[in-house]
Amino acid sequence: MGRSMHTSITVETTDRVSVHDITDNVSEAIPVEVGQGLCTVFVPHTTAGVTINEAESRLIDDMESKLADLVPTGQGYGHDEIDDNADAHLRSMLLGQSVTIPITTGDVNLGTWQSILLFEGDGPRTRTVEVAVIPA
Amino acid sequence: MGRSMHTSITVETTDRVSVHDITDNVSEAIPVEVGQGLCTVFVPHTTAGVTINEAESRLIDDMESKLADLVPTGQGYGHDEIDDNADAHLRSMLLGQSVTIPITTGDVNLGTWQSILLFEGDGPRTRTVEVAVIPA
Amino acid sequence: MGRSMHTSITVETTDRVSVHDITDNVSEAIPVEVGQGLCTVFVPHTTAGVTINEAESRLIDDMESKLADLVPTGQGYGHDEIDDNADAHLRSMLLGQSVTIPITTGDVNLGTWQSILLFEGDGPRTRTVEVAVIPA
Q1: What crossing angle do the helices spanning B86-95 and A57-70 adopt, rounded to 10°?
Q2: How many other CB atoms are there within 10 angstroms of residue B5's CB atom?
Q3: Which domains, ranges and CATH numbers included, belong to chain A?
Q4: pLDDT per residue over B29-86, tens digit each?
Q5: Closest among C114, C101, B43, C54 to A98, alpha carbons compared
Q6: How distant is the Cα of C16 from the closest Cα of chain B, in angstroms?
Q7: Residues of chain B in Cβ contact (below 8 Å) with chain A
Q8: Would you say the pTM of this structure is higher than 0.90?
Q9: ipTM
Q10: What is the DSSP letter of A41?
């Protein structure tokens, strides 16, 4: 058996823009025999992203609003002539596509208020999230 | 002994918003027997973040000002009704909560001008930073 | 032989601000014997950054424009008195300096539309990008 372990998570997003708490999905992807290590959560899409923050519904609305404020839809972006979703690409750029989290005592070692949040910028779609674990 | 090594760093922040150079703390957290590998610096808080840049005092002021410019305090955020610190959460979202740095010759392989910077968005508080090392 | 493997990539950037697709360079830096693992791409510069998105020319123009819109050049930044490149440092802060990507079947497991993009904010220069691989 190799040392690294890879799992794919599937998320059905629900709107053009939405945020999904995938913390439990990531926890379940960590093999029970892994006590310590690193966990990388990677989004293989260019119009989605991942971040870690508090999964509080009004804060999630604030996140979506702030990203829309910094990157408004349809501002004459060149890429809109091709695919009409430049806003989603640029919001993904600001958020990032991967987070790496320590694993201790068999789970991602998140802080009390932290959840792993998938940002959908151009849905609804079936999205994949890759979870790669390097065990101790 | 497992292969991964985990250390917690404690930082006492000094103001509501502040930036702290934690490069030396991270270097000290790398065990002497580790020659090569990866180092993840993870902030387990939702109103703080971590980035890598030049620890020059006027640039640090510029960073704080730019984050305040992009995410002004008290703009009617929904989360402010719960905790009155949505600005800090949203600035954390823009910065990110983890950085991963190669380890070569026994230390994080930073560029000449790079320092590891903890961003405090809702202090002063006692903050923890997790350092996870995967040795070669 | 240690488990981790480190390679430096050199990129000659072409303008003050430019974006370079380094996906092929990263793929070539993964040793053929590595089937699974993690790959960290790290930029050891404070006026450059790295992100993952679609390498479509109009979108790349949109990325440069959006970063210039969020962080305009020469807005009285304190650091400009020292080095006159605060805009590049602050754009680097928004993008980030590292991405971590799963390796499966011998290569970085990118999505269909994803490329690894080096952002140059204060060129033209000779830039180095570090690729660290932790094999399975």
Answers
A1: 60
A2: 20
A3: 5-72+83-135 (2.60.120.460)
A4: 999 899 999 999 999 999 999 999 999 999 999 999 999 999 999 999 999 999 999 9
A5: C101
A6: 19
A7: 2-4, 6, 38, 40, 42-46, 70-71, 77-79, 81-82, 86, 89-90, 92-94, 96-98, 100, 128, 130, 132, 134
A8: yes
A9: 0.95
A10: E
